[in-house]
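Posting for a labmate who doesn't have an account.
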Amino acid sequence: MTEINAVTTLTRDGDIAVITLNSPPVNALSAKVREGLFEGFKAAGASDAKAIVLICEGRTFIAGADISEFGGAMAGPSLFDVQDMMEGSPIPVVAAIHGTALGGGLEVALCAHYRVAVPSARVGLPEVALGLLPGAGGTQRLPRIVGVEAALDMVTSGRHVPAKQALAMGLVDELVEEGKLLEGALAFASKAVAENKPLVKVRDNNAKLEAAKGHPEIFADFRKANARKFRGFMAPENNIKAVEAAVNSASFDEGLKAERKLFTELMMGAQSAAQRYYFFAERQANKIPDVPDDTPIRPIKKVGILGAGTMGGGIAMNFLNTGIPVTIVEVQEAALERGLATIRKNYERSRTAKPEETEARMALLSGSLDFEKLADCDLIIEAVFERMDIKKDIFARLDKVAKPGAILASNTSYLDIDEIASVTSRPGDVIGLHFFSPANVMKLLEIVRGEKTAKDVIATSMKLAKQIGKIAVLAGVCPGFIGNRMLSQRQREAQKLVMEGAMPWDIDRVLYDFGFPMGPFAMSDLAGLDIGWVKENSKGETIRDVLCEMDRRGQKTGAGYYDYDEKGAAKPSPVTEKIINDFIVKSGANPRKIGDEEILERCVYPMINEGAKILEEGKAIRPSDIDVVWINGYGWPVYRGGPMHYGDQVGADKVLAKMKEFQATMGEAFKPSALLEKLVAEGKKFSDLKA
């Protein structure tokens, strides 16, 4: 055995040279790995070996680039050097894949002459998720193997392709028995030598590109079909352009040059910087400074849920999906039956759930009107009406029924967890688990720690969130916690802007163009304007009151802030415009023309300022946690990194100056936070704040 470097060895098995990588945890393409590959292939090619097998130790093949090196100076051989060494090898190179071959890992494997994999392996080019494209020939080699249409799908979705599908696509040449990857790869290499198989270079295989030449409609149709999904993102379009370059360039090297230019444009741009920032932010959110990784976890083998409404049912599905039994308790038989039926319907309507899976999940679900049925649950989540008196009554009852050590959680989106916990004899067991609607779909889970919440309760909740497929962020107790507290700032300004002369569709358009899926008024129409509205108490005192009194309650009635046609398409409403103008006249204000820039600044800067206050008060651990909340719970575009990252991009000094300007003309609602003032005074950014 020859040790090439600390992470690479070169051994022999008869006539076959074996290069083995072992760079935990995922064999990422760090400088050491690139050096090991380069020198390993160089040494193997210069030996009397007849073929080379590349294999990795640990749980995976090369799982991608070492993104911690992004933006820094490149040390050692480049990835292109490694690829040239592999592709130019005078003897066959076989890449042996297990786990995942992703991004740069697949780009390395594509430079081998052959690829074998175990059935559990997956391959893909997920760079688009970081606002990038595969910058080491991935967009040039992939369509040469799988065809243009399949390549477009892979590079713009970033999906991980299972080994069996990869075999059918030609990405993998052979599947070998699970657990016997090295033996299978050696056998394949020996056979290639015995049969004198040609050294197939993917870069020279142009047949599938030729079939696409002269057919620009392939790209036009793909763009059209995915326009909604790709809206606002630069990376999918640059990926498409790179595949176009593979088809239309005179040579592989010319296509590679085009790919590099498109990659550099993304790498140097604000969108990829935001998406790479978010990649780390999401992982950082799991780290709680005063709750160490080795904090004991309470076992959660059964979950109880109070309330079988939309939220309670959606929460239940998260646990059923992972095989955890759930008991739902309601106060009325009709509500319980309706809730259980809705859960079944949701499963039956799902494209992914098979009938037998639906039955298996429903078998884990039981419903009851008896509060005592919660006595054996390890976690009980209250998901009832958002009223403090109701919640305190429920928690006082839970305190008597729940077994010792059970976690008592409230799904409140706004109310004080400490006040709720105060009616129990075990406030250390009480925590907020704020799911977002629809709870079986939305990724975010705001975990709210009370003043007395035990550390093992926090640790258990964070781990459980991951188990049920949620992205968890820890928040402290304050009205609205992180997300809704900041949302209230935007909502206030949107309503004020309407009374100053901006129409709802103007405000919605600006926020939609910024990257939100929809603006606040379109969202209100979608949810229903009558949520929380009581007809008997309505006196026409607000625009919403008047709209509801006219039975303009949103999309469900065909009219709200907007008018809706028979297909559900929204258009500005002259009725709403008249109602707004009447309110403005009644208020004595003078409506004015409000520009898009002011609309955006009025809606977004107060959110950034409120985020600073949340940090100041210690209600969020770090600025990036706030960004994770907003991206996963409120539709903030990931390519803008979240409100705090966006504040850094705009410049804290500019945000502060605008807040002061608005404060001078519009009042104390715009008073800058002390933290924002401090950052500007010290010339710092939100990203400089460390947990």
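Reply:
Got it, the structure tokens are right above this. DSSP finds 29 helices and 20 strands in the chain.
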